Each structure stands twice: as structure tokens, then as C-alpha cells.
Amino acid sequence: MPDLLPAEDVERSLEDLEGWKVEGKTIAREFEFETFLLGIAFVVTVATVAEELNHHPDIDIRYRRVRVAVSTHSAGGLTELDFALAGRCNELAEAN
Length: 96
Prior knowledge:
Elements: H1 7-14, E1 21-23, E2 26-32, H2 36-53, E3 58-62, E4 65-70, H3 80-95
Antiparallel strand pairs: 1-2, 2-4, 3-4
Helix pairs in contact: 2-3
């Protein structure tokens, strides 16, 4: 099981992640796309990466907006894996 990050490491890691914010024991970001189908394509690519990492985010789809929230439930909060997945989400959004 991954180790929980101390609060100062969480804040430092957030500095490198555009658009993400802490919400309790989770980090979250909302992405907006030009069309519904681009948002769905993003969700599919995020799901593929999540499967590869065996780390599954909460995803909420609202027309052209997609909200992604990540936390390591088995560790009870935020770990390096959450920030790795968040970074990949940012990369995938830029590619869309």
C-alpha cells in the first residue's frame, strides 16, 4: 500500500498540477471540452490509464464538463499515485 503524503508534500505537489485542488482527502479538477464527444473520449483515455495504474478515479460527466477526483482509498488519503494520475489526466486533456 502506498504511503500517505504529509500536508506539505500535498501542497508542493499541487503547485505542479494546473487546475487541481484539495477537497478533503481527495484532489479534484473539472475539465471542459468543446464537444460532448471530446469529453467522452477523454474519459475513455483516463479509464485506460487508470486500468494500467490499477488506480481508479471518480469521474462525473456533465455534458462538456468532466470532473475527475482521485484519492487512494486503501491508504485513507492522498499518495504519490494520486498525483501521478492527476498529471496524466492533465496531459490527456491537453492532447484532446
